[in-house]
Amino acid sequence: MGTWRYGVILDAGSSGTRVYVYKWLNPARARKDAIPEQLHTLPELVTKKKWTLKTHPGVSTFGTNPSEVGEKHLAPLLNHALSHVPVDAVADTPFFLLATAGMRLLPEHQRARLLQEICSYTRETTKFQLPDCDLHVQVIPGETEGLYGWIAANYLLGGFDNPQDHDHGKGHHTYGFLDMGGASAQIAFAPNATEAEKHANDLKLLRLRTIDGVGEEYKVFVTTWLGYGANEARRRYITALQDAVGESSKELPDPCLPSGLHLTLAGKPVPAGHENDPHLLGTGKFKECLSQTYPLLEKDKPCLDEPCLVGGTHVPAIDFDVNHFVGVSEYWHTTHEIFEMDHLDKAYDFKTYQSRVSEFCSQPWEDIEAGIKSMKWGKKVDETTAEEVCFKASWLINMLHDGIGIPRVGLEMKSGGKNTTQHLISSAKSKGFLDPFQAINKIEGTEVSWTLGKMVLYASSQVPPAEDTMAVGFGSNTPGVATPTDFQYPGGKQFDTPDDLTNMTPDAEVADQQDWHDKLFQDSPKRVPGFLLFLLILAVATFLILGRERRNALYTKLRSIFGLGPCRRKRGPTSTARFGKYDRVVVDDPEAAVSSANEFELQAPYPHDFDSGDEHSDDTEGTAGKASGWATPTLHNTTPGTGLESSPSKRGYFGDASGLGLGPAWTAGLMSRVDSRERLVPGRSRNASPTRRSPNLGLGSFVKESVD
């Protein structure tokens, strides 16, 4: 097993399937390299934008033709993943395809055949680790999707690793999670202590494991509302409009469309010659739109288990003093892609947002069309987005405030006459998200995706457990039961990873040593420079091993071959002190030493090229690091050019080269000139050496990291 572990996961949604590739340090290497403060943290996952790819349509469209799903749907996704996972790591790379809303709607027999075909095709065409089809290729319920999202959000925000920086009061340091897709919506949060005890049987028991092998346990409430996603809510809304005006009416006035816009009942432009077919006519009355979408919450449904939120669904009481929520997917797109284009980091402000939506939706459609052509609202806003945004905004507002009960910041919440939004931003920057709700897309440059949460759970399970540490996974929270009967393990096969690299098995040790070698000699644009660098290092090492007498003889011979005069010894910035048969270099002038050592600098550029795998993402690569404070949508690169970017809370891994034991580049070069001679002198104290080897990194590892 090499230095890095990899994982591949496919998010099979209703409109398409997206592949994600993640990597993290081998647990043994991570434990060895970590400073004490980092040992009790979760594994650090890394991903990049170019490691993702999405294909259309959704995998569920192959329900009636499962034999075609491989070549027509999976092939490009698998090939993309294989292009980013090293060949020698494929067999140890777990593969997951987890399907959501679209597949849930298929008949059972179609769903079973399709999942089996996906698993068989992947096994036949790749060597990815896929030991259990039922666990690695499955349709996950909305509750599981919500739990994975909760893990991802708290992992990126720092709620797990830096609880002291996220103290919300009452011993609470995690964040609530809201997700809204096309078909369903999810909520996940850890209730306060009182509610957690009162509703213990309604919670999920979640166990993770940190780098030091110690387990962490959380109790989370998760539920899903099927039919409460933006598209399904819109379908229910159109049905309600038809019932209100009657079947005889051909024109349905729609306050959730801009004034003058004509659309079919399916939300498409009315074809020529079909003007007399039933269709929608926009009236652009946003207040009326809000009132007509409110009944879709179905708050009048009977609540069989108090308390309830929408649709008669039981949810423990939410304590907004300690429960602060982040929202992704439609919560982000609908609040930011039009109305917050110039304020992407702005805290959600109900009063300001509703005012902007109302102003937009009251415009005549021809004015909105002109604004789209002039890119008034940015490049991502097209006609389809503009046609849908008024309904989506009204649904989001109702769902957030009347459904879930999020306080209306800017209306219900005051802050002593201060600008409320500005006040929230200041608070959030000092201690993370502390407002009741904040829409987000990325944290520290990494997309908040439930797939990340699944892979964090898996990577956590691969850490060797400390004594008496429970298994990683999740299941029902049954008081008095250590491992519930429905406990789900993350999947894959458990590797016997040693506590440190010194105890690695021979095969693992060889693999780790070969990691940099494979990077150097595999087919890539860096192959030739890497090979030349290797030869240079080999030549220098051989020259040093020859010994002083042989070097002098060789030097004299070379000078005679080229017709040069006798060699005279010149005193420079360095002098030599004799120790028996060998010389030790003593540095008198550090600046001269730097100049000399630069001849052997082993740095190599790290590429910063990205694909457009995420249509809602900017050009950043993501290190899925955990933020210790305010999490911004951009990745902080503290070491330009190294490619080892990370969030501030993880500088010891990726944010600072010195955290890996690299030290300045000149130290590595000087070490290559001096260290081989030091090792030839038996019994010599290394403390007397003017240049010490980093405890974490040998020469081979340095080359590996430089060209990775």
Short description:
With 708 residues, the protein is an alpha+beta fold. It has a domain of 124 residues. The protein has 23 helices and 21 strands.
Secondary structure layout plus pairing:
Blueprint: E1 4-12, E2 17-25, H1 27-33, H2 36-39, E3 45-47, E4 53-55, H3 69-82, E5 95-99, H4 101-104, H5 108-125, H6 133-136, E6 137-139, H7 142-157, E7 176-180, E8 184-189, H8 193-198, E9 204-209, E10 215-226, H9 230-245, E11 251-254, E12 262-264, E13 279-282, H10 286-293, E14 325-329, H11 330-336, H12 350-361, H13 365-373, H14 383-404, H15 420-431, E15 437-439, E16 442-443, E17 446-447, H16 450-461, E18 473-476, H17 506-521, H18 527-545, H19 548-561, E19 574-579, E20 582-587, H20 590-597, E21 622-624, H21 651-655, H22 665-678, H23 699-707
Parallel strand pairs: 1-5, 5-6, 7-14, 11-13, 14-15
Antiparallel strand pairs: 1-2, 2-3, 2-4, 3-21, 7-8, 8-10, 9-10, 9-18, 12-13, 16-17, 19-20
Biased composition (Polar residues): 634-649
InterPro entries: GDA1_CD39_NTPase (IPR000407)
Family: Belongs to the GDA1/CD39 NTPase family.
